[in-house]
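Something for you to look into today, if you have time. Could you write out one complete protein record for me, on any chain you like? Leave the record below and I will have a look.
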Amino acid sequence: MVVLNIYGRIKPICISKKLGLYIANLPKEEHNNWNDMLYEEMILAKKRIDESSKRYKLKSPFEIDKIYSAVCFPAKDKKINNYKKIHEIVNNMICVYLDYNYDDMPLGGWETNCFDGRMCENDYAEKIINFICSINENGNVPHYIYSSNHDFNNPYGFLQYTSETDKYIEGLKEWGKKFDDFLISKNDYLQLDYLINAFFKDNDYNEYHLLKLYSLCQLFLEKEKETELDKKLIIFLDDMYSEELKNIIPEKLRKMRNKIAHGDFIAFEKLVEEFACEIMDNNFYFDYSEYSRKNWVILHICCELEIVVKKMINMLFLDREKLEKIKNCN
């Protein structure tokens, strides 16, 4: 079960027909009672936060009245006790889930469909929301505050709520339409699965992350040989770089990627220092109490490549033909 940071009483809403992605209030059925489960989770979260605040002699931020007034539209009797208020808060919670027929997808049934929920795999609804939040450029989509996929959940997640429910639902619908317009063939479904997994739970900005991000650039831009990216990547680089630097950076990134892939770490160290001297020195403050010089460079490159890859993915959904044209140009 994946719960979003938006609240309100709604009927089930289809976000993406081709993915079978829906949002609705928490189910409260005999054999599927997530409503009561989340009530218990909120009670435990409040207890943990109150105890932590008391330990550090701070005021607990878990104020039931404040949450109740913000997420129950309109708030009912404010004189009822806190436990009833928590019940009403949970009644207004909105979850996201997948519900589809195998015949509606070109990925087969239970044995092969990657979107199915399985005991030893991550909840795919969570992965989709994570992906949308990662590449969305407008800030108009919700994030999840609770996932039953995790043994340990952040109790402070329940304090993250918004009153702009309609705005965020419309943002989700926009992404659902992008998915539905994109998903034409079986390969499209498999590519979307690949991209969703590429962004899921990967926040370590290290050599491997650099390697993966550059490989994603190759996926979108490389037609015949990797040197093509020396020119094609320029289109997606940030305008904060001068034209001179834009013409230097892609080649350096390609060489770094190759040195990592072939295990030539001495040469990689040399390229890192060259990048620091030519691109970052005089334009960047290195705080060596936080990272080493090498790790500052890798972090910076990963951040820049993430921006580049997100631009490509958004172009994939908004203007697929344009991205293909860039890929196929010589």
Q: What stands out?
A: The first strand starts at residue 2 and ends at 7. Residues 280 and 297 are 8 Å apart (CA to CA). The two ends are 47 Å apart (CA to CA).
